Amino acid sequence: MAEHSATDPQTPGTPAATGTGTEGVKRGMAEQLKGGVIMDVVTPEQAKIAEDAGAVAVMALERVPADIRAQGGIARMSDPDMVQGIIDAVSIPVMAKARIGHFVEAQVLQSLGVDYIDESEVLTPADEAHHIAKSEFTVPFVCGATELGEALRRIAEGAAMIRSKGEAGTGNVVEAVRHMRAIRAGIRRLGTLDETELFVAAKELRAPYPLVAEVARLGKLPVVLFTAGGIATPADAAMMMQLGAEGVFVGSGIFKSGNPAQRAAAIVQATTFFDDPAVIAKVSRGLGEAMVGINVATLPDGERYATRGW
Amino acid sequence: MPEARVPVIGVLALQGDVREHLAAARALGATALTVRRPQELAGVDGVVLPGGESTTIGKLAARSGVLEPLRAAIAGGLPAYGSCAGMILLADRLLGAPPDQVTVGGLDVTVRRNAFGRQVDSFESEVALEGLPGGPVHAVFIRAPWVEQAGPGVQVLGRVVGGEADGRIVAVRQGNLVATSFHPELTGDRRVHALFVDIVRRHLDQKAGVSAGYERGTEP
């Protein structure tokens, strides 16, 4: 696998940036999260459980996706008091979600001191054409993607980390698998193209040519690629890692299960030892009930979060 | 002179920017391996504790059983380099950490976690390192720690210049142990890793000298 660095050593003549909010510290932050599990939490108590279980970061939100599905209504950025309470409760990084295109929610989250913003399809989109212009912010952003072109459009807007969208709040890993395979296959395909063909690929992917050429050269995205959306078990997490994810977001899967602390620790362990079935078997024993989950095929189109984002 | 053995660098691969450290070690001619289990530590000549989330790495090290062998190896003289989270893990004393945070220890320093602030305070700057030729290194600080207090046997290699944190210690060495607050693995500048690989090579030479005794140098 080609090597990538936050300050790309393969771009000679580019002076290294200094100061805060650089591409280097935004992408570099995601590099530090690799091999880790980021857990959705809705209270400071849950945040502590996640930290104690070995989460590399927590995602502060008002309702986990499963509850957003069940309760309906407009899902928005969390109450600043809640975000602040979680920031105060843990020493690990705290992420929070802003609605797609809602740049003021993002401004608010940055002012609260969150460490990463997820411009997330799980919340109700605030703009049906535009995503947030993320490069303008000091805080880094992670965005969801279902295929390579979408990932590259988000990176062009300034996303410093990409995750598969999956289908959040279902406990069903099938969409995360679909999206991870699509992104990875797209990357592999670019590696087989010559320069002339890469121009056409950029057009087809609806992504900027320089980014397409960079992916072809690196054999990977220029930012870290995590998985999200439906991961509910240690085996789910390990499978996504074997499929090429560099880390895992777990949303409803932990705190909608029978034994959150034990399940959280088990998913952390399975993410580190993703290639060791004996470890995955060991940590999967006696975990109690997983979240019940939803068959994605039965979801009406309007309730599929993965179709949000453009 | 006998042909020097290629040093084997193990990178603790429980979580974090493992790939970048592996690439840096390989670029310097070392063999680089991941270490997640106790038995994988046995064959290494030096160990890198990577950047990542120090609380997570500490917990996973304890659960995987690699923590105690790692502590023993470092106490026994195994060269180690820690960047960012790795510096925290090597520290004997922590500030700004949960009271139950697990560390490896060995480095006689007090390290403050997230000393520069949160991610919005993460920054890049130039840091001059003692004894490192070629001018200052471009340093990437990400929710970085600093060394608040260093024991008498600890050599300060570098400090922040300018800003609110002016003068704070961000690079140290104590015998075979090196630690930096920043992430040289992210920049493609291999000089800090070269310093560490050099320490590992010297350590190997010393061990070879001790075991070979007067016969040293007579091998083909």
TrEMBL record, chain A:
<feature type="binding site">
    <location>
        <begin position="251"/>
        <end position="252"/>
    </location>
    <ligand>
        <name>D-ribose 5-phosphate</name>
    </ligand>
</feature>
<comment type="subunit">
    <text>Homohexamer and homododecamer. In the presence of PdxT, forms a dodecamer of heterodimers.</text>
</comment>
<dbReference type="InterPro" id="IPR001852">
    <property type="entry name" value="PdxS/SNZ"/>
</dbReference>
<dbReference type="GO" id="GO:0042823">
    <property type="term" value="P:pyridoxal phosphate biosynthetic process"/>
</dbReference>
<feature type="binding site">
    <location>
        <position position="169"/>
    </location>
    <ligand>
        <name>D-ribose 5-phosphate</name>
    </ligand>
</feature>
<dbReference type="InterPro" id="IPR033755">
    <property type="entry name" value="PdxS/SNZ_N"/>
</dbReference>
<comment type="similarity">
    <text>Belongs to the PdxS/SNZ family.</text>
</comment>
<dbReference type="Pfam" id="PF01680">
    <property type="entry name" value="SOR_SNZ"/>
</dbReference>
<comment type="function">
    <text>Catalyzes the formation of pyridoxal 5'-phosphate from ribose 5-phosphate (RBP), glyceraldehyde 3-phosphate (G3P) and ammonia. The ammonia is provided by the PdxT subunit. Can also use ribulose 5-phosphate and dihydroxyacetone phosphate as substrates, resulting from enzyme-catalyzed isomerization of RBP and G3P, respectively.</text>
</comment>
<comment type="pathway">
    <text>Cofactor biosynthesis; pyridoxal 5'-phosphate biosynthesis.</text>
</comment>
<feature type="binding site">
    <location>
        <position position="181"/>
    </location>
    <ligand>
        <name>D-glyceraldehyde 3-phosphate</name>
    </ligand>
</feature>
<dbReference type="InterPro" id="IPR011060">
    <property type="entry name" value="RibuloseP-bd_barrel"/>
</dbReference>
<dbReference type="GO" id="GO:0036381">
    <property type="term" value="F:pyridoxal 5'-phosphate synthase (glutamine hydrolysing) activity"/>
</dbReference>
<feature type="binding site">
    <location>
        <position position="40"/>
    </location>
    <ligand>
        <name>D-ribose 5-phosphate</name>
    </ligand>
</feature>
<keyword id="KW-0663">Pyridoxal phosphate</keyword>
<keyword id="KW-0704">Schiff base</keyword>
<feature type="domain" description="PdxS/SNZ N-terminal">
    <location>
        <begin position="24"/>
        <end position="228"/>
    </location>
</feature>
<dbReference type="InterPro" id="IPR013785">
    <property type="entry name" value="Aldolase_TIM"/>
</dbReference>
<dbReference type="GO" id="GO:0008615">
    <property type="term" value="P:pyridoxine biosynthetic process"/>
</dbReference>
<dbReference type="GO" id="GO:0006520">
    <property type="term" value="P:amino acid metabolic process"/>
</dbReference>
<feature type="active site" description="Schiff-base intermediate with D-ribose 5-phosphate">
    <location>
        <position position="97"/>
    </location>
</feature>
<feature type="compositionally biased region" description="Low complexity">
    <location>
        <begin position="7"/>
        <end position="20"/>
    </location>
</feature>
From TrEMBL, chain B:
<dbReference type="GO" id="GO:0004359">
    <property type="term" value="F:glutaminase activity"/>
</dbReference>
<feature type="binding site">
    <location>
        <position position="113"/>
    </location>
    <ligand>
        <name>L-glutamine</name>
    </ligand>
</feature>
<comment type="similarity">
    <text>Belongs to the glutaminase PdxT/SNO family.</text>
</comment>
<comment type="subunit">
    <text>In the presence of PdxS, forms a dodecamer of heterodimers. Only shows activity in the heterodimer.</text>
</comment>
<dbReference type="InterPro" id="IPR002161">
    <property type="entry name" value="PdxT/SNO"/>
</dbReference>
<dbReference type="Pfam" id="PF01174">
    <property type="entry name" value="SNO"/>
</dbReference>
<dbReference type="GO" id="GO:0042823">
    <property type="term" value="P:pyridoxal phosphate biosynthetic process"/>
</dbReference>
<dbReference type="GO" id="GO:0005829">
    <property type="term" value="C:cytosol"/>
</dbReference>
<feature type="active site" description="Charge relay system">
    <location>
        <position position="183"/>
    </location>
</feature>
<keyword id="KW-0315">Glutamine amidotransferase</keyword>
<keyword id="KW-0663">Pyridoxal phosphate</keyword>
<dbReference type="InterPro" id="IPR021196">
    <property type="entry name" value="PdxT/SNO_CS"/>
</dbReference>
<comment type="function">
    <text>Catalyzes the hydrolysis of glutamine to glutamate and ammonia as part of the biosynthesis of pyridoxal 5'-phosphate. The resulting ammonia molecule is channeled to the active site of PdxS.</text>
</comment>
<comment type="pathway">
    <text>Cofactor biosynthesis; pyridoxal 5'-phosphate biosynthesis.</text>
</comment>
<dbReference type="InterPro" id="IPR029062">
    <property type="entry name" value="Class_I_gatase-like"/>
</dbReference>
<keyword id="KW-0456">Lyase</keyword>
<dbReference type="GO" id="GO:1903600">
    <property type="term" value="C:glutaminase complex"/>
</dbReference>
<feature type="active site" description="Charge relay system">
    <location>
        <position position="185"/>
    </location>
</feature>
<keyword id="KW-0378">Hydrolase</keyword>
<feature type="binding site">
    <location>
        <begin position="142"/>
        <end position="143"/>
    </location>
    <ligand>
        <name>L-glutamine</name>
    </ligand>
</feature>
<protein>
    <recommendedName>
        <fullName>Pyridoxal 5'-phosphate synthase subunit PdxT</fullName>
        <ecNumber>4.3.3.6</ecNumber>
        <ecNumber>3.5.1.2</ecNumber>
    </recommendedName>
</protein>
<dbReference type="GO" id="GO:0006543">
    <property type="term" value="P:L-glutamine catabolic process"/>
</dbReference>
